[in-house]
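Field log, afternoon session.

UNIT: design team B
ACTIVITY: writing a sequence onto a fixed backbone
BACKBONE:
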């Protein structure tokens, strides 16, 4: 994975993203403060519309999904989620050790995975001991680590590692 991201850094088009704008480059009338002189307004509007379009879908699901379900791949689901968390934690640590600003991306991804894991652990746990264990894990492990990842990402965005 690291070798692939290093190759992306050397890509002539992708390496310009986030770099200083070049005067006279890009489309006429394009915003110079955006990578490549592109306007993000159309993409931003598409994301807003997609988010709003999800609201009726969520309400539909809330009234049509069964109260309980049996899943033949239950263990694969949890092993897969926890494997993704492990990979995200590893990648974040590796980028940090290299003082690589891409740790922001992996830290945000790790935080999201941990919060999703906490949510599904608590909401899918059986009552009594299983639920108590899920709550303890969420409160004392998953949510605090997710917060550390979010703070890390915000700090590196504010004060990036020097290039070189």
């Amino acid at each position: 994975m690291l070798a692939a991201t290093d190759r992306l850094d050397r890509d002539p088009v992708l390496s310009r993203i986030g770099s200083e704008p070049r005067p006279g480059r890009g489309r006429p009338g394009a915003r110079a403060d955006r990578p490549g002189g592109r306007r993000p307004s159309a993409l931003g509007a598409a994301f807003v519309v997609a988010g709003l379009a999800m609201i009726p879908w969520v309400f539909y699901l809330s009234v049509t999904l069964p109260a309980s379900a049996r899943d033949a791949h239950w263990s694969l689901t949890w092993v897969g989620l926890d494997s993704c968390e492990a990979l995200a934690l590893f990648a974040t640590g590796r980028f940090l050790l290299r003082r690589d600003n891409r740790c922001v991306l992996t830290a945000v991804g790790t935080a999201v995975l941990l919060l999703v894991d906490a949510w599904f652990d608590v909401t899918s746990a059986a009552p009594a001991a299983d639920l108590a264990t899920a709550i303890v894990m969420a409160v004392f492990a998953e949510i605090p680590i997710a917060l550390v990842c979010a703070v890390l990402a915000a700090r590196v965005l504010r004060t990036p590692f020097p290039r070189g």
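LOG NOTE: Residues 129-158 form the longest helix (30 residues).
NEXT ACTIVITY: expression trials, pending approval
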